[in-house]
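Summary for the steering committee. One of the milestones for this cycle was to obtain a three-dimensional model of the protein with alpha-D-glucopyranuronic acid bound, which we needed before selecting residues for the alanine scan. The sequence and ligand used are listed below.
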Amino acid sequence: MSQPNPRAAWLLMPLLMSACVTPRPDVPRLPPDPLIAADGSMIKTAEQWRQSRRPEILEQFRRHMYGRSPEPTEVRIEEMSESLALDGKAQRKQWRVRYDDAEHAFFEVLMYLPVNASKPVPAFLGLNFFGNQSIHSDPGIRMPTTWMRNDKKIGVTNDRANESTRGKRASRWPVEKILARGYGLVTVYYGDIDPDFDDGFINGVHGVLDPPLAGKRATDAWGSIAAWAWGLSRVLDTLEMDADVDAEHIAVLGHSRLGKTSLWAGAQDERFAMVISNDSGCGGAAYSRRRSGETIKVINRVFPHWFCTAFRAFDDREDQLPIDQHLLIAAIAPRPAYIASAAKDSWADPEGEFLSTLGADPVYRLLGTDGLPATKMPPVDQPVHGQLGYHVRAGKHDLTWQDWQQYLTFADRHFR
Ligand code: GCU
Protein backbone atom coordinates (compact mmCIF):
# COMPACT_ATOMS: atom_id res chain seq x y z
CA MET A 1 0.00 0.00 0.00
CA SER A 2 1.56 3.30 -0.89
CA GLN A 3 0.11 6.45 0.52
CA PRO A 4 -0.26 9.71 -1.33
CA ASN A 5 2.15 12.23 0.04
CA PRO A 6 0.64 15.64 0.46
CA ARG A 7 3.81 17.04 1.98
CA ALA A 8 6.32 16.33 -0.74
CA ALA A 9 7.63 19.86 -0.32
CA TRP A 10 9.21 19.37 3.07
CA LEU A 11 10.50 15.97 2.06
CA LEU A 12 12.44 17.66 -0.68
CA MET A 13 13.94 20.25 1.67
CA PRO A 14 17.16 18.31 2.31
CA LEU A 15 17.63 18.01 -1.45
CA LEU A 16 17.57 21.74 -1.79
CA MET A 17 19.99 22.09 1.09
CA SER A 18 22.30 19.42 -0.24
CA ALA A 19 25.02 21.03 -2.37
CA CYS A 20 27.60 18.25 -2.31
CA VAL A 21 26.99 15.39 0.08
CA THR A 22 28.38 12.30 -1.61
CA PRO A 23 28.34 8.62 -0.63
CA ARG A 24 31.35 7.68 1.47
CA PRO A 25 34.00 5.38 0.03
CA ASP A 26 34.81 4.19 3.59
CA VAL A 27 31.33 2.64 3.99
CA PRO A 28 30.97 -0.57 1.99
CA ARG A 29 27.66 -1.03 0.18
CA LEU A 30 25.55 -3.82 1.62
CA PRO A 31 23.89 -6.20 -0.84
CA PRO A 32 21.39 -5.82 -2.36
CA ASP A 33 22.87 -2.45 -3.31
CA PRO A 34 20.33 0.26 -2.56
CA LEU A 35 21.56 2.28 -5.51
CA ILE A 36 21.39 -0.45 -8.16
CA ALA A 37 17.90 -1.18 -9.48
CA ALA A 38 16.62 -4.72 -10.05
CA ASP A 39 17.35 -4.34 -13.79
CA GLY A 40 20.98 -3.48 -13.02
CA SER A 41 20.77 0.22 -13.75
CA MET A 42 22.51 2.70 -11.44
CA ILE A 43 20.49 5.07 -9.29
CA LYS A 44 22.35 8.36 -9.48
CA THR A 45 19.79 11.01 -8.63
CA ALA A 46 17.24 11.71 -5.93
CA GLU A 47 14.63 11.73 -8.65
CA GLN A 48 15.53 8.19 -9.78
CA TRP A 49 15.41 7.04 -6.18
CA ARG A 50 11.98 8.53 -5.59
CA GLN A 51 10.42 7.67 -8.92
CA SER A 52 11.70 4.16 -9.45
CA ARG A 53 14.00 2.53 -6.87
CA ARG A 54 11.98 3.28 -3.73
CA PRO A 55 8.67 2.06 -5.24
CA GLU A 56 10.47 -1.05 -6.51
CA ILE A 57 11.86 -1.78 -3.03
CA LEU A 58 8.48 -1.29 -1.33
CA GLU A 59 6.89 -3.62 -3.86
CA GLN A 60 9.50 -6.29 -3.12
CA PHE A 61 8.87 -6.01 0.61
CA ARG A 62 5.14 -6.39 -0.04
CA ARG A 63 5.52 -9.33 -2.38
CA HIS A 64 8.14 -11.31 -0.48
CA MET A 65 7.89 -10.36 3.16
CA TYR A 66 5.14 -8.36 4.88
CA GLY A 67 2.39 -8.94 2.32
CA ARG A 68 0.08 -6.60 0.54
CA SER A 69 -2.25 -4.46 2.65
CA PRO A 70 -5.63 -3.24 1.46
CA GLU A 71 -6.03 0.37 0.44
CA PRO A 72 -6.84 2.75 3.30
CA THR A 73 -10.50 2.73 4.27
CA GLU A 74 -12.42 5.81 5.39
CA VAL A 75 -12.16 6.08 9.12
CA ARG A 76 -14.56 7.62 11.60
CA ILE A 77 -13.93 8.88 15.09
CA GLU A 78 -16.42 7.48 17.63
CA GLU A 79 -16.94 7.79 21.38
CA MET A 80 -14.46 10.62 21.79
CA SER A 81 -13.93 11.60 25.41
CA GLU A 82 -11.71 14.32 26.74
CA SER A 83 -10.63 15.31 30.22
CA LEU A 84 -7.81 16.68 32.32
CA ALA A 85 -5.63 13.93 33.77
CA LEU A 86 -2.35 13.25 35.57
CA ASP A 87 -2.88 15.92 38.27
CA GLY A 88 -3.88 18.48 35.70
CA LYS A 89 -0.66 18.09 33.71
CA ALA A 90 -2.29 16.34 30.77
CA GLN A 91 -5.18 16.62 28.45
CA ARG A 92 -6.35 13.03 27.94
CA LYS A 93 -8.36 12.09 24.88
CA GLN A 94 -9.69 8.67 24.00
CA TRP A 95 -11.56 7.66 20.91
CA ARG A 96 -12.43 4.73 18.72
CA VAL A 97 -11.09 4.54 15.18
CA ARG A 98 -13.85 2.87 13.22
CA TYR A 99 -12.61 1.50 9.89
CA ASP A 100 -15.66 -0.49 8.74
CA ASP A 101 -19.32 -0.94 9.67
CA ALA A 102 -18.77 -4.50 10.93
CA GLU A 103 -19.46 -4.90 14.65
CA HIS A 104 -15.88 -5.13 15.95
CA ALA A 105 -14.22 -3.03 13.25
CA PHE A 106 -12.64 -0.41 15.52
CA PHE A 107 -9.74 0.11 17.87
CA GLU A 108 -9.32 2.36 20.90
CA VAL A 109 -6.81 5.21 20.94
CA LEU A 110 -5.39 6.90 24.04
CA MET A 111 -3.69 10.25 23.70
CA TYR A 112 -2.05 12.48 26.31
CA LEU A 113 -1.07 16.03 25.43
CA PRO A 114 0.83 18.44 27.68
CA VAL A 115 -1.61 21.12 28.89
CA ASN A 116 0.90 23.93 28.91
CA ALA A 117 2.37 23.41 25.43
CA SER A 118 1.33 25.56 22.51
CA LYS A 119 -0.92 23.74 20.07
CA PRO A 120 -0.64 21.87 17.80
CA VAL A 121 1.68 19.50 19.68
CA PRO A 122 4.11 17.05 18.01
CA ALA A 123 3.71 13.51 19.34
CA PHE A 124 5.02 9.99 19.55
CA LEU A 125 2.71 7.24 18.33
CA GLY A 126 3.34 3.65 19.36
CA LEU A 127 1.43 0.41 19.74
CA ASN A 128 1.50 -1.34 23.12
CA PHE A 129 1.50 -5.04 24.05
CA PHE A 130 -0.91 -5.19 27.00
CA GLY A 131 -3.55 -2.52 26.50
CA ASN A 132 -3.68 1.24 26.87
CA GLN A 133 -4.38 0.85 30.60
CA SER A 134 -1.00 -0.91 31.01
CA ILE A 135 1.01 2.20 30.11
CA HIS A 136 -0.07 4.28 33.13
CA SER A 137 -1.99 3.75 36.37
CA ASP A 138 -4.40 6.57 35.39
CA PRO A 139 -7.83 5.16 36.41
CA GLY A 140 -9.51 7.03 33.53
CA ILE A 141 -7.95 4.86 30.80
CA ARG A 142 -10.51 2.62 29.12
CA MET A 143 -9.99 -1.10 29.54
CA PRO A 144 -9.67 -3.22 26.39
CA THR A 145 -12.26 -5.96 25.96
CA THR A 146 -10.48 -7.81 23.15
CA TRP A 147 -8.33 -10.94 23.39
CA MET A 148 -5.05 -10.56 25.29
CA ARG A 149 -2.33 -13.12 25.94
CA ASN A 150 -2.28 -14.35 29.55
CA ASP A 151 0.71 -13.03 31.45
CA LYS A 152 1.55 -13.57 35.13
CA LYS A 153 3.74 -10.49 35.52
CA ILE A 154 1.20 -8.15 33.95
CA GLY A 155 -1.76 -9.92 35.58
CA VAL A 156 -3.66 -10.90 32.43
CA THR A 157 -5.88 -13.94 33.03
CA ASN A 158 -8.65 -15.59 31.01
CA ASP A 159 -7.27 -13.87 27.90
CA ARG A 160 -8.66 -10.50 28.98
CA ALA A 161 -7.29 -7.37 30.64
CA ASN A 162 -8.49 -6.51 34.16
CA GLU A 163 -8.04 -3.73 36.76
CA SER A 164 -4.86 -5.29 38.17
CA THR A 165 -3.08 -4.66 34.86
CA ARG A 166 -3.24 -0.86 35.12
CA GLY A 167 0.20 0.73 34.87
CA LYS A 168 2.03 -2.60 34.72
CA ARG A 169 4.02 -1.50 31.68
CA ALA A 170 4.57 2.07 32.85
CA SER A 171 8.35 1.60 32.78
CA ARG A 172 8.19 1.54 28.97
CA TRP A 173 6.02 4.65 28.73
CA PRO A 174 7.43 7.60 30.73
CA VAL A 175 4.32 9.65 30.06
CA GLU A 176 4.99 12.60 32.41
CA LYS A 177 8.55 12.99 31.15
CA ILE A 178 7.44 12.94 27.52
CA LEU A 179 4.80 15.59 28.25
CA ALA A 180 7.30 17.71 30.20
CA ARG A 181 9.45 17.85 27.06
CA GLY A 182 6.52 19.24 25.10
CA TYR A 183 5.44 16.10 23.23
CA GLY A 184 2.19 14.22 23.18
CA LEU A 185 1.90 10.46 23.39
CA VAL A 186 -0.58 8.40 21.40
CA THR A 187 -1.00 4.67 21.86
CA VAL A 188 -3.18 1.74 20.82
CA TYR A 189 -3.29 -1.86 22.03
CA TYR A 190 -1.91 -3.87 19.07
CA GLY A 191 -4.28 -6.78 19.73
CA ASP A 192 -7.21 -4.42 19.15
CA ILE A 193 -6.05 -4.19 15.53
CA ASP A 194 -5.10 -7.83 15.12
CA PRO A 195 -4.83 -10.39 17.94
CA ASP A 196 -1.29 -11.79 17.94
CA PHE A 197 -1.81 -15.49 17.34
CA ASP A 198 -2.13 -17.75 14.34
CA ASP A 199 -5.88 -18.07 13.88
CA GLY A 200 -5.97 -18.40 10.09
CA PHE A 201 -6.62 -14.65 9.69
CA ILE A 202 -10.23 -14.84 10.86
CA ASN A 203 -10.07 -12.31 13.68
CA GLY A 204 -8.99 -8.66 13.83
CA VAL A 205 -8.69 -6.42 10.80
CA HIS A 206 -7.97 -9.38 8.47
CA GLY A 207 -11.35 -10.91 9.30
CA VAL A 208 -13.10 -7.65 8.46
CA LEU A 209 -11.26 -6.51 5.33
CA ASP A 210 -10.05 -9.66 3.59
CA PRO A 211 -12.17 -11.21 0.88
CA PRO A 212 -14.01 -14.28 2.23
CA LEU A 213 -11.64 -17.24 2.34
CA ALA A 214 -12.50 -19.31 -0.69
CA GLY A 215 -9.64 -21.78 -0.66
CA LYS A 216 -6.13 -20.48 0.00
CA ARG A 217 -4.94 -16.97 0.78
CA ALA A 218 -2.59 -15.41 -1.75
CA THR A 219 1.10 -15.94 -1.00
CA ASP A 220 1.45 -12.18 -0.70
CA ALA A 221 -1.63 -11.62 1.49
CA TRP A 222 -0.81 -9.35 4.41
CA GLY A 223 0.33 -10.79 7.70
CA SER A 224 -0.06 -9.39 11.20
CA ILE A 225 2.89 -6.98 11.04
CA ALA A 226 1.34 -5.41 7.96
CA ALA A 227 -2.02 -5.27 9.74
CA TRP A 228 -0.54 -3.46 12.77
CA ALA A 229 1.27 -1.05 10.43
CA TRP A 230 -1.97 -0.43 8.53
CA GLY A 231 -3.64 0.36 11.87
CA LEU A 232 -0.95 2.93 12.69
CA SER A 233 -1.73 4.74 9.44
CA ARG A 234 -5.43 4.75 10.30
CA VAL A 235 -4.62 6.29 13.70
CA LEU A 236 -2.68 8.97 11.84
CA ASP A 237 -5.77 9.57 9.67
CA THR A 238 -7.65 10.51 12.84
CA LEU A 239 -4.79 12.59 14.24
CA GLU A 240 -5.04 14.67 11.07
CA MET A 241 -8.59 15.54 12.14
CA ASP A 242 -7.50 16.85 15.57
CA ALA A 243 -6.36 20.47 15.66
CA ASP A 244 -4.59 19.97 19.03
CA VAL A 245 -2.00 17.57 17.65
CA ASP A 246 0.59 18.34 14.98
CA ALA A 247 -0.02 15.48 12.55
CA GLU A 248 2.90 16.68 10.44
CA HIS A 249 5.25 15.89 13.31
CA ILE A 250 4.37 12.39 14.43
CA ALA A 251 7.18 10.00 15.33
CA VAL A 252 6.03 6.41 14.93
CA LEU A 253 7.77 4.20 17.46
CA GLY A 254 7.76 0.55 18.42
CA HIS A 255 9.61 -2.07 20.45
CA SER A 256 10.53 -5.55 19.27
CA ARG A 257 7.80 -7.00 16.99
CA LEU A 258 6.23 -3.56 17.19
CA GLY A 259 9.61 -2.09 16.17
CA LYS A 260 9.40 -4.23 13.03
CA THR A 261 5.93 -2.74 12.64
CA SER A 262 7.00 0.90 13.08
CA LEU A 263 9.60 0.43 10.32
CA TRP A 264 7.09 -1.04 7.88
CA ALA A 265 4.52 1.64 8.76
CA GLY A 266 7.04 4.46 8.35
CA ALA A 267 8.58 3.04 5.17
CA GLN A 268 5.22 2.96 3.41
CA ASP A 269 3.42 5.98 4.81
CA GLU A 270 5.38 9.16 4.21
CA ARG A 271 3.10 11.14 6.45
CA PHE A 272 5.09 9.76 9.41
CA ALA A 273 7.69 12.44 9.96
CA MET A 274 10.04 10.23 12.01
CA VAL A 275 10.48 6.51 12.61
CA ILE A 276 11.91 4.88 15.75
CA SER A 277 12.59 1.16 15.98
CA ASN A 278 13.67 -0.26 19.33
CA ASP A 279 15.28 -3.73 19.52
CA SER A 280 13.38 -4.87 16.43
CA GLY A 281 15.66 -7.72 15.36
CA CYS A 282 14.80 -10.23 12.63
CA GLY A 283 12.24 -8.89 10.19
CA GLY A 284 12.89 -5.42 11.63
CA ALA A 285 16.24 -3.63 11.50
CA ALA A 286 18.53 -6.68 11.67
CA TYR A 287 20.33 -7.54 8.43
CA SER A 288 18.96 -10.98 7.54
CA ARG A 289 21.99 -12.14 5.57
CA ARG A 290 24.04 -12.22 8.80
CA ARG A 291 21.93 -15.12 10.08
CA SER A 292 22.84 -14.20 13.63
CA GLY A 293 20.33 -14.61 16.46
CA GLU A 294 16.82 -15.19 15.14
CA THR A 295 16.70 -16.28 11.49
CA ILE A 296 14.00 -16.13 8.82
CA LYS A 297 13.39 -19.86 9.13
CA VAL A 298 12.88 -19.65 12.89
CA ILE A 299 10.66 -16.56 12.81
CA ASN A 300 8.46 -18.08 10.07
CA ARG A 301 8.07 -21.28 12.08
CA VAL A 302 7.33 -19.70 15.47
CA PHE A 303 5.24 -16.77 14.18
CA PRO A 304 3.61 -18.07 10.97
CA HIS A 305 1.09 -15.22 10.97
CA TRP A 306 3.54 -12.28 11.03
CA PHE A 307 4.68 -12.28 7.39
CA CYS A 308 3.16 -13.37 4.09
CA THR A 309 3.63 -17.02 3.19
CA ALA A 310 5.92 -16.12 0.25
CA PHE A 311 8.55 -15.17 2.87
CA ARG A 312 8.97 -18.87 3.73
CA ALA A 313 10.73 -19.40 0.38
CA PHE A 314 13.70 -17.62 1.98
CA ASP A 315 14.07 -19.93 4.98
CA ASP A 316 17.81 -20.70 4.98
CA ARG A 317 18.06 -18.85 1.65
CA GLU A 318 18.72 -15.32 2.86
CA ASP A 319 21.14 -14.64 0.02
CA GLN A 320 18.34 -15.11 -2.51
CA LEU A 321 16.21 -12.32 -1.03
CA PRO A 322 15.94 -9.39 -3.47
CA ILE A 323 15.79 -7.14 -0.42
CA ASP A 324 17.32 -6.92 3.04
CA GLN A 325 16.51 -4.73 6.00
CA HIS A 326 18.83 -1.80 5.17
CA LEU A 327 16.53 -1.19 2.21
CA LEU A 328 13.55 -0.93 4.55
CA ILE A 329 15.31 1.84 6.48
CA ALA A 330 16.37 3.44 3.19
CA ALA A 331 12.72 3.58 2.12
CA ILE A 332 12.16 6.00 5.03
CA ALA A 333 14.78 8.45 3.72
CA PRO A 334 15.16 11.38 3.89
CA ARG A 335 12.92 11.42 6.97
CA PRO A 336 14.76 10.96 10.27
CA ALA A 337 14.96 7.36 11.47
CA TYR A 338 16.41 6.01 14.73
CA ILE A 339 17.40 2.38 15.30
CA ALA A 340 18.27 1.15 18.78
CA SER A 341 19.73 -2.09 20.09
CA ALA A 342 20.44 -3.53 23.53
CA ALA A 343 23.86 -5.05 24.22
CA LYS A 344 22.51 -8.25 25.77
CA ASP A 345 19.86 -8.73 23.09
CA SER A 346 21.78 -11.16 20.89
CA TRP A 347 18.48 -12.70 19.66
CA ALA A 348 17.82 -9.38 17.87
CA ASP A 349 21.46 -9.18 16.62
CA PRO A 350 22.63 -5.66 17.59
CA GLU A 351 25.47 -5.77 15.03
CA GLY A 352 22.95 -6.63 12.33
CA GLU A 353 20.68 -3.78 13.43
CA PHE A 354 23.61 -1.38 13.22
CA LEU A 355 24.70 -2.74 9.84
CA SER A 356 21.27 -2.09 8.31
CA THR A 357 21.27 1.45 9.66
CA LEU A 358 24.67 2.09 8.11
CA GLY A 359 23.53 0.29 4.96
CA ALA A 360 20.78 2.87 4.48
CA ASP A 361 23.32 5.72 4.68
CA PRO A 362 24.08 5.94 0.92
CA VAL A 363 20.41 6.70 0.22
CA TYR A 364 20.21 9.31 2.98
CA ARG A 365 23.29 10.95 1.47
CA LEU A 366 21.98 10.77 -2.08
CA LEU A 367 18.93 12.63 -0.78
CA GLY A 368 21.14 15.36 0.64
CA THR A 369 21.26 14.58 4.36
CA ASP A 370 24.15 13.67 6.64
CA GLY A 371 22.92 10.08 6.99
CA LEU A 372 24.53 8.24 9.87
CA PRO A 373 27.58 10.10 11.23
CA ALA A 374 29.51 6.89 11.96
CA THR A 375 31.36 4.28 9.97
CA LYS A 376 31.74 1.68 12.73
CA MET A 377 29.36 0.41 15.37
CA PRO A 378 29.59 2.86 18.29
CA PRO A 379 30.51 1.56 21.75
CA VAL A 380 27.74 0.73 24.24
CA ASP A 381 25.88 3.81 25.52
CA GLN A 382 27.45 6.17 22.99
CA PRO A 383 24.58 7.22 20.74
CA VAL A 384 25.12 8.66 17.27
CA HIS A 385 22.64 11.25 15.99
CA GLY A 386 22.37 12.51 12.42
CA GLN A 387 19.46 12.20 10.02
CA LEU A 388 19.85 8.55 11.01
CA GLY A 389 20.32 7.79 14.69
CA TYR A 390 21.63 4.67 16.39
CA HIS A 391 22.56 3.45 19.84
CA VAL A 392 23.30 0.22 21.61
CA ARG A 393 22.23 0.52 25.23
CA ALA A 394 23.74 -1.57 28.02
CA GLY A 395 21.33 -4.22 29.23
CA LYS A 396 18.65 -6.46 27.90
CA HIS A 397 15.78 -6.47 25.42
CA ASP A 398 13.48 -3.71 26.67
CA LEU A 399 12.27 -0.17 26.05
CA THR A 400 13.67 1.98 28.85
CA TRP A 401 13.93 5.60 29.91
CA GLN A 402 17.50 5.57 28.58
CA ASP A 403 16.15 4.73 25.13
CA TRP A 404 13.44 7.38 25.43
CA GLN A 405 15.96 10.06 26.38
CA GLN A 406 17.64 9.53 23.03
CA TYR A 407 14.32 9.58 21.17
CA LEU A 408 13.32 12.85 22.83
CA THR A 409 16.68 14.44 21.99
CA PHE A 410 16.41 13.14 18.42
CA ALA A 411 12.90 14.59 18.14
CA ASP A 412 14.14 17.95 19.53
CA ARG A 413 16.85 17.97 16.88
CA HIS A 414 14.48 17.31 13.97
CA PHE A 415 11.14 18.71 15.08
CA ARG A 416 12.06 21.93 16.89
C1 GCU B 1 10.27 -12.97 20.07
C2 GCU B 1 10.55 -12.97 18.58
C3 GCU B 1 11.13 -11.64 18.11
C4 GCU B 1 10.27 -10.48 18.59
C5 GCU B 1 10.05 -10.58 20.08
C6 GCU B 1 9.07 -9.56 20.66
O1 GCU B 1 11.48 -12.94 20.76
O2 GCU B 1 11.40 -14.05 18.29
O3 GCU B 1 11.20 -11.62 16.70
O4 GCU B 1 10.87 -9.26 18.26
O5 GCU B 1 9.50 -11.85 20.40
O6 GCU B 1 8.31 -8.95 19.95
O7 GCU B 1 9.05 -9.43 21.88
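Key point for the committee: Confidence is low (pLDDT under 50) at residues 6-20.
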